[in-house]
Fold these 2 entries.
Entry 1:
Amino acid sequence: MDGKRILLIIGGGIAAYKSLELIRLLAKDGIGARVILTKAGAEFVTPLSVSALSGDKVFQDLFNLTDEAEMGHIELSRSADLIVVAPATADLLAKAANGLANDLASTTLLATDKPVLMVPAMNVRMWEHAAVKRNVAQLVADGVHVMQPDVGPMACGEFGPGRLPEPERIAAQIRKLLAGPVGAGPLAGFRAIVTAGPTREPLDPVRFISNHSSGKQGYAIAEALSRLGADVRLVTGPTSLAIPDGVTPVKVETAVEMHDAVKAQLPADIFVAVAAVADWRPATRAQTKLKLKGAQEAGVALQLVENPDILKRIASKKKDRPRLVIGFAAETDNVEAHAKAKLLRKGCDWILANDVSGDVMGGSDNEVLLVTRKGTERWPRMAKAEVALKLADRIAEAFYDPEGAAKIGAAE
Ligand code: CTP
């Protein structure tokens, strides 16, 4: 990584001190850091300690004439291979998402033509606030890389997501981004959408219909595709799993939301539907909690309506159909025959079929069949993470090796 350089924007937050450690870690890899310290950032770390570690002057003021004479903010914004904002405060995220430019940090973010990595850190309530979620979604849509904060106890005494990731994790992400799309893996430059986890279909404000899906297989596939360099969007129902590094999450609850979220991420090259989507949802969603009173004698009749079949709809799109559409088939009997029928019914290119009569849902292992239009491959029982790596390899092969593609029946 010798000779690579980042521009590090240190925002105001109790975690700002971790950015000093980050500078030190990167220097060990030969990655230089030039630093912009925001006004709030300077409340937590001093320009002196930053410049001692970075070995460079620290930039603080948009209207510092000497700096403007030596290097304008435009030049500064382009003087590095990557811009990293750590900690990225709610304020910095909001400015960047809305294109504000009223100080050196925000002006630099607006003027740059380089990739940007935001490493958020803030109070858990702030991180979960609708406004912050909106801003993060906007940044992701604008092509900004946004890391997921760590979950844990916070300086303010609360617990949850919002902590700045450990410097080692940030450094790993920086190395990955600096490695660039070329040579970063066979799927660099490809976009993949993966659905994972269960959906929740609400009956009233406290009850919902759902299933036992843990999300493990979908998350592992998202991670494996990302490791091969793909830009992965993980559209996920509620799970207890951490979002894999480098993967962009889109969190949803219901099947309808999942369908909308997948469409919003198109166009993509690869679509892998792993989610255990609820086939039905209650016809009505009560605004207040349904009462038992009066229902005992009559019994409760639940009216259900069908949910969109996301896999089928994406596979049958005329415009924007991903080149490779892969579904899962959860079966309890006649696995291969049902999977073949499902492949045709859903219009997808490949189906990974598994027998869910055992402990697959929630378990760590999986035994699958890869069913394509050309035939069936039986994979031995292996860990879900291994299934994911093998599938990601197969996908890369299908895109790169015409013979491989023919052999496994990839989409034309
Ligand atoms: N799927 C989907 N949207 C739905 C239902 C399923 O995208 N509303 C996807 C799943 O993510 C999976 C595949 O379709 O990739 C097959 O799911 P499965 O539950 O096995 O099949 P069903 O379509 O529900 O068919 P059946 O219940 O008849 O087996």
Entry 2:
Amino acid sequence: MCGIVAYLGTREATPILIEGLKRLEYRGYDSAGIAVIANGTLEVARSIGRVANLEAALSDLPDTNATLGLAHTRWATHGGVTEMNAHPHQDDRHGIAVVHNGIIENYASLKKYLQEKGHTFQSETDTEVIAMLISELYAPDEGIDLEAAVQGALREVNGAYAIAVICQSEPDTLVCARKGSPLIVGVGRGEYIVASDPSAIVAHTTQAYALDDYNVVRLSRDNIRTSTLENVEVPPKVMQLEMELDQIELGAFEHYMLKEIHEQPARIRTTMRGRIDMKEGRIVLGGLAAFHKELVRAHRLILAAQGTALHAAMIGEYLFEDLARIPTECEYASEFRYRNPIIDEGTVIVAISQSGETADTLAALTEAKERGALSLGVINVVGSTIARETDAGVYLRVGPEIGVASTKAFTGQVTVLTMMAIYLARRRHMSAERCMTLLKELEAIPDKMASLVAQDSTVRGVVEKHVDRDNWLFLGRGYNYPTALEGALKLKEISYIHAEGMPAAEMKHGPIALIDDGMPVVVIATQGSQYDKVMINIEEVRARGGHVIAVATEGDPNIEGHADDVLFVPPCPECLSPMLTVIPLQLMAYHAALIRGHDVDKPRNLAKSVTVE
Ligand code: G6P
């Protein structure tokens, strides 16, 4: 949510900043802006919409050869989508420009104070108060340079921020800071590229410094200095960025979402690699080893997440209870701390998040930790905030996910949760035999996924028949109830078709009133304990004129007589089935969006990583 990139070095800053913004655009695309210091003057360009619009607006900027600058792509929180509200924001005295990701909670009182001091504001944003506050404190003649002014300003600020700041009277200095929002300092040869995530850095360098909360870093042409807000110097934390450039390139695919759907078989193999020990018939999760005893003795799990990760968590709830027999609750992370949760000894919280930066998930984690819970992370982005805040965890290893609608992260999350459930089950009560059978089936999942992504054109054919319908239902039972929720979410997110997912049995308690002639109803009707009941639900839909699209098990002899369209998935144990049944639903949403002419990778109003509560 909001992407920041800043550059100080010897090369021309503008193309590096624009390229960086394009890499970060998935974090928000309401508006974009850039500021550089050229020949001692601050030059700023901003535009609403995509980075491409900003590029066009740049023709207004003089040809600068500037080697210092910063840029921003915005997901609006405070203030509408206007050019005035686009970052960078400037002060009204010293030629200071600021880009910001996060929310300043006390901005209203700070703004009032600054207005009383004579500052004139241009925007409705919280960010502008940071620029003005730095400006108010900036007094180089009294020894308060940009770094000191930033430290002073941030001491007054409540909330979350990652910021980059430049000032036209300090053309060789870039000051950055973070608290609660991500920021990484890439260190190249004679240059620094600071960004919200590695995707904007790895084209230039893989050496980086990680910043802790309340760290301020001052980059100058020959020095780097990291300090606290109280100006106590802290040693920089060196890190190696592991992302490869080709992981974030589109390659032969038209969209990142399609690329990521197709990557699933290979990525899920990587998720499992080295973690399934077929010889011993057990799961090996090195990330949990230090807390082995506490986990085996845990008597309650809380799974907290948002969005797609929440749907993975809901599948996790079934897995942990069914396989490991541990009482498990699944929570909207955003609601968790507002209901005074009971955390007793033996409670373990599992935060599930692709980005590892989702503010709601982080807040739930913090709450549970404060109340004494052991905390685990199921995270994709290595070194992200949640990954660092948890006591232990298991990474997804699915590679960078760029498409805003999550796909491979979902199957990665379900795979990790399945492995965790089997890990605990075997150590608690599951027989070696049952465990071995499950592990074999788990290992076979990636090949089965590969056969599903190859069904792309079949799914498109089904979607084409219904894509003009504005209301869809998704039904499932048991393990595939969360899959139904995920199918509906995918369709909503990128095709803007209204879709509701629900337990198949719940339909008759209200939503059945929506069913009219030809309404598309996607029913997950794979073989398993709930099959007969789901078939009854299918008949209830058809009796009211609904058009049933069934996701069923290959070889099912009956289903074609009951459904209007059928998408087949290979057979597998019920507890593993969501990893397969979700794939046709992902493809369904992709094609619906494409046919309706929407931007699949950047759906309106959404952001990939939501770093505000
Ligand atoms: C946003 C994204 C969703 C994602 C959710 C949780 O809403 O648009 O696709 O599922 O955040 O993100 P996380 O990074 O915590 O998995």
